[in-house]
Write a structure and sequence with these properties.
Helices cover about 45% and strands about 15% of the residues. It is of the alpha/beta class and about 375 residues long. The chain has one domain: TIM Barrel (Alpha-Beta Barrel). An 8-stranded parallel β-barrel has the order 4-5-6-7-8-9-10-11, surrounded by 6 helices. Strand 5, helix 3 and strand 6 form a beta-alpha-beta unit. The N terminus and C terminus are likely disordered.
């Protein structure tokens, strides 16, 4: 293993380490999902067995509207985590995403840490590469990377805030949108574009839609702060500049609200911790809800069994929210009465005048 590969593996270990201790959350920001109040239905006129939680995303039907997003890879520990979490996702009929596969491109010996097909032959599996790396790779190399793990989709992650505070991070983000456009046109699998904790604005979503993207993971503010992870990793939690960027971005609920009417399929991730929060995101227009940190934390605490408990409870929480709003399906939930309050309402009202701006109006 060369120094660069060793550096990638060490970085992966350092990024995974905080989740042993509960992760690194936003300092003050929340997801604003608490601002979405679903109106209680005291006479739902349906049984629990009537509820259909199935969701369509990226050409697949999931048994429940959950997606374990962008876990990890590149270390021996990640090999076991990926395999066990993917196996649970397969049993529950939900989606599963690998962490960035950059490490296996730099060192092919690390490819086994991303291989989950033997453990989860039927799971909907998303491969993963950073936008900057995508811009520097020939498309056939990306296709081989996906084929090596049997991926059903490619997730392209965007994380400029994290990169800017990472000493070894990227500093040149030119060409990423063009690379995404080429991937959408040239790959045989769907392309999902995701943030990693700073959210996706309407303006950015419009530019991505113009590039052919139909699937987004908004990954908003309120969950794991990757600026925070970098600050902890470097022992610089008190650095005022890092603290100023710790909560940077668009809260999860606001990001979903901004893109819900664009005809795109949306994963609402970033701080989703319960089934009720997932249901609130679905009511705003998300196709599925994404979860990562609680799953990683559960795995460190109790392995595969703990992961299954956490995800099963979330699914039952979603089901309860459906019953308590009188909703049999996701479409019913979206049509059910709800009240949007507080800063989320203010955000939506403030942003509404910009709804007709062209896609070229800014990066967002």
């Amino acid at each position: 293993m060369d120094d660069r590969s060793f550096g990638a593996e060490r970085r992966k270990q350092e990024h995974l380490a905080p989740f042993r201790r509960g992760g690194v959350a936003a300092r003050e920001a929340t997801t604003w999902l608490e601002c979405v109040r679903l109106v209680h239905c005291a006479v739902p006129d349906l049984s629990v067995a009537d509820v259909d939680l199935s969701a369509s995303f990226a050409g697949r039907t999931l048994r429940a509207p959950l997606f374990v997003t962008g876990m990890t890879g590149g270390t021996p520990e990640a090999r076991l985590l990926n395999a066990e979490v993917a196996r649970v996702a397969g049993r529950l009929g939900i989606g599963f995403g690998l962490g960035s596969q950059r490490a296996m491109l730099e060192d092919p010996d690390l490819a086994s840490t991303y291989e989950v097909r033997a453990a989860a032959p039927d799971v909907f599996l998303a491969g993963n590469i950073g936008g900057v790396q995508l811009a520097s790779l020939p498309l056939n190399a990306v296709a081989r990377m996906l084929e090596a793990v049997g991926a059903d989709a490619l997730c392209v992650h965007l994380n400029p805030a994290q990169e800017l505070v990472q000493p070894e991070g990227d500093r040149d983000f030119r060409g990423v949108l063009d690379a995404i456009r080429r991937a959408v046109r040239g790959l045989d699998v769907p392309v999902i574009v995701k943030e990693v904790g700073a959210g996706i604005s309407r303006e950015t979503a419009l530019r991505l839609r113009d590039a052919g993207v139909r699937c987004l993971d908004v990954a908003g503010v309120g969950g794991t702060s990757w600026v925070g992870v970098e600050a902890v990793r470097r022992g610089r939690e008190s650095d005022p500049e890092l603290r100023a960027l710790w909560d940077w971005g668009v809260p999860t609920a606001a990001a979903v609200a901004e893109v819900a009417d664009l005809g795109m399929e949306v994963i609402a991730s970033g701080g989703v911790r319960t089934g009720v929060e997932a249901a609130r995101a679905l009511a705003l227009g998300a196709s599925v809800a994404g979860v990562a940190a609680p799953v990683a934390g559960a795995w460190f605490e109790g392995g595969e069994e703990a992961v299954e408990r956490v995800l099963s409870r979330m699914i039952e929480g979603v089901r309860a929210a459906f019953v308590l709003t009188g909703s049999r399906t996701i479409a019913d939930l979206r049509a059910a009465p709800r009240v949007v309050t507080g800063p989320l309402r203010e955000w939506i009202e403030a942003r509404t005048p910009g709804r007709d701006r062209p896609a070229g109006g800014g990066a967002g």
